[in-house]
Amino acid sequence: MNDLIPLHCPSCGGNIQVENQLEKIYCTHCGTQLLLRMGSDGLLAPLIAREMAASAGLMEAQKAQITADLLQKQIQQLEAQAQRIRHDLLQYCRDNQVDGWGRETKGLKLVNQYTRQVTGSPQLTRDILRQAVSKNPVTGEWNYHLQAVEALNLPALTTAEDMYRLFQFVLKNTDQGKEARQVLAILQPIASIWPELAKKQQEYGNAVEKMAGR
Ligand SMILES: [Zn+2]
């Protein structure tokens, strides 16, 4: 036989009696669903169920917000690392366009084989690189400004995922010699950066959905 504990309904103030083993009751006066919780004072206290649910939902949303903020920072850092790799790759391509016989180097050729495979046409040809060139008015020398090269519209050579796909392509073509290995060395860090970035982006998407309460 359980003791009956006299309490007041927090919604209507009416007297209610509850068994101490119960978790969920309805007020006999106003019908409000109540949850019984042990307070920090060790006494049983009735709480309005829908308010509990609302505050639990709010806490979930706040937690998701903190998670999303943290993930966003981590994503930005990984994106910056990927862009650094792209910068190094484009610098290499700018500085290694032609071999001793004036032909496109094997390194640049490899990059263009990859872009042709993805987009249907080579994307980093010497003609395209020439768009980023300017003549020094004093010395008359042609300068390939790296910033201008980086600003070119280069399909398949832009995002972190692009760098990862290029890395995998070059990995399959290391038999192309020294230049292939040089390009591979530049791209190597993306092997761990891209999977990590993709995972964080997925987690970020989940956190944003939770924030919206979906
Ligand atoms: Zn009530």
Helix/strand layout:
Blueprint: E1 4-8, E2 15-19, E3 24-26, E4 33-38, E5 44-48, H1 49-95, H2 106-119, H3 126-130, E6 133-135, E7 142-144, H4 146-151, H5 160-171, H6 178-187, H7 190-211
Antiparallel strand pairs: 1-2, 3-4, 4-5, 6-7
Helix pairs in contact: 1-7, 5-6, 5-7
Bound molecules: zinc ion.
Note down, in words, how this protein is organized.
54% of the residues lie in helices and 14% in strands. By secondary structure, it is an alpha+beta fold. The protein has two domains: 4-53, Rubrerythrin, domain 2, CATH 2.20.28; 59-211, no CATH class. β3 and β4 (33-38) form a beta hairpin. The mean pLDDT is 91. Bound molecules: zinc ion. The site of zinc ion (ZN) has 8 residues, from loops.
- The separation of the N and C termini measures 44 Å
Individual helix count: 7
The strand line-up of the biggest sheet is 3-4-5
User: How many domains make up the coordinates?
Assistant: 2
Order of helices and strands: EEEEEHHHEEHHHH
> Pairing-aware structural class of the strands and helices?
alpha+beta
| Average pLDDT reading | 91
- Report the sheet-strand fraction: 5-15%
Return residue spans where pLDDT drops below 50 for at least 5 consecutive residues. none
Considering the chains and any ligands shown, give keywords for the structure.
214 residues; alpha+beta; Rubrerythrin, domain 2; 2 domains; two-stranded antiparallel ribbon; binds zinc ion
Brief characterization of the structure:
The protein is an alpha+beta fold and 214 residues long. 54% of the residues lie in helices and 14% in strands.
